[in-house]
Design brief:
17 strands; about 15% strand; about 450 residues; UDP-N-acetylmuramoyl-L-alanine:D-glutamate ligase; Protein-Tyrosine Phosphatase, Chain A
């Protein structure tokens, strides 16, 4: 049987000569497939610069704790493409299997008939086809890029639309100001459907999101810090909206910012009609939600085995300045609880603001080891990463790869075992999880 990888490689030849952000190509393909987007379970649509995946993870964990079947679409994948498509089942969904994915991709290829289309557009159509064929209680649909013209934005009447934290990223497509980025993300809001706006770090973004939700007449419009809130208090997560007050466990996901994501997730579920979920489902979901590659600690596998004895290894795929700020804050919080020298093992793509990301760690990280991002032609050379780190105020060196960097740390004397953070790119995070033998499941 032909493999998923072989089919997707063939799709690359269909890539349009110029990228115009529009829904025309995917709408045409879905029409030729018989409009599977009209046969989906209730959809909760999620956009944002940072926090999308964690918000989806919280919703999934809560819903599955209640015994519901939850389809999930996220991107990019970390190790295997199949991670993007989780088929819901009562008791817990599973990544799509190879046979079903190959069948869906072939159906989309045949229906497309060789017309220009991006890989993300045609694979999103395949995911929608799969979700339409399998019964489920809900589909959690994560935007790939932007929102307004993203291939996922073909759902006319979502059960709810959520926009998480806005920051600058993908400026070549979304614009170089927070207002422009927020405008694109707000494109998922729909008339008469709930719009949830997570608490924002920037007033400029918050203003645009509110204005766009009002302009399209989304209803209700629920704004973090105004209509709902979630914060950590005495080692618990306290959630409150107009009708509910919940005292919940601390999120398993690490970082103070996860309270904001959890609050948006709970609000979205309630706005989407899941008002009868038992409190036990919220408790279990908040305490058990996982999101691989985002502030994930490796406690087993290959990499802990080659690291300095007693050290910690963390992985995070954040790559923009705001992601770096949140990540640095989480590392500072860990240092307060258990002090250890922080060493960054960092690889970055040339399209990202490396200095803006790394500047957050000045004065916090002991040093940085620059490494290449495996398999990425757009990746920066290790020396370039180290030079950027130096400009950002960090002591930097290089290694041939993340494994060599970690093994090199083992050869040194440490007054206290280090805390090692592999960071700078989701592709680097995925490569590390694959090499460690602990891919997402």
């Amino acid at each position: 049987m032909e493999s998923t990888d072989a089919i997707i490689a063939r799709f690359l030849a269909l890539h349009p000569k110029t990228i115009d952000l529009s829904l025309g190509r995917v709408e045409r393909l879905l029409a030729d497939l018989g409009h599977p987007e009209e046969r989906l379970p209730p959809v909760i649509h999620v956009a944002g610069t940072n926090g999308k995946g964690s918000t989806v993870a919280f919703m999934r964990a809560i819903l599955e704790a209640a015994g519901l079947a939850v389809h999930i679409y996220t991107s990019p994948h970390l190790v295997r493409f199949h991670e993007r498509i989780r088929i819901g089942r009562p008791g817990g969904g599973l990544f799509v299997d190879e046979e079903k994915l190959v069948s869906a991709l072939r159906s989309c290829e045949a229906a497309n008939g060789g017309e220009p289309i991006t890989v993300f557009e045609i694979t999103t159509a395949a995911a929608i086809l799969l979700f339409a064929q399998e019964p489920a209680d809900v589909l959690l649909l994560e935007v790939g890029l932007g929102g307004r013209f993203d291939a996922t934005n073909v759902v006319a009447e979502p059960a709810a639309a959520v926009v998480t934290s806005i920051g600058l990223d993908h400026a070549e497509y979304l614009g170089d100001t927070l207002a422009k980025v927020a405008f694109e993300k707000a494109g998922i809001f729909k008339r008469g459907r709930p719009a949830i706006i997570a608490r924002q770090d920037y007033v400029e973004a918050d203003d645009v999101l509110r204005a766009r939700a009002e302009a399209v007449r989304a209803s209700p419009i629920l704004v973090g810090g105004q209509d709902f809130s979630a914060h950590i208090e005495n080692g618990r997560l306290v959630y409150q909206d107009e009708d509910a007050l919940m005292d919940l466990p601390m999120p398993r996901l690490v970082g103070a910012h996860q309270a904001i994501n959890a609050g948006a997730a709970i609000t979205a579920l309630r706005a989407a009609g899941f008002l009868r979920l038992p409190n036990a489902s919220y408790e279990e979901g908040i305490a058990s939600a996982e999101w691989p590659g985002r502030l994930q600690r490796l406690t087993r596998g290959v990499l802990p085995g080659i690291a300095p004895e007693g050290s910690e290894i963390w992985i995070d795929g954040g790559h923009n300045p705001d992601g770096g700020r949140v990540l640095a804050a989480a590392m500072a919080d860990l240092a307060e609880r258990s002090d250890a020298p922080l060493v960054l093992v960092a690889g970055m793509l040339g399209t990202k603001d490396g200095e803006g990301f790394l500047r957050n760690f000045a004065g916090l990280a002991r040093e940085l080891v620059g490494v290449p991002v495996p398999g990425q032609v757009a990746g920066r050379p290790a020396l370039e990463v180290a030079q950027i780190a130096t400009r950002a105020g960090l002591v930097a060196s290089t290694a041939a790869g993340f494994e060599a960097a970690i093994a090199g740390l083992r050869e040194r004397e440490w007054e206290r075992a280090p805390r090692i953070l592999i960071c700078g790119s989701l592709y680097l995070a995925g490569a590390a999880l694959g090499a460690n033998g602990t891919p997402p499941t």
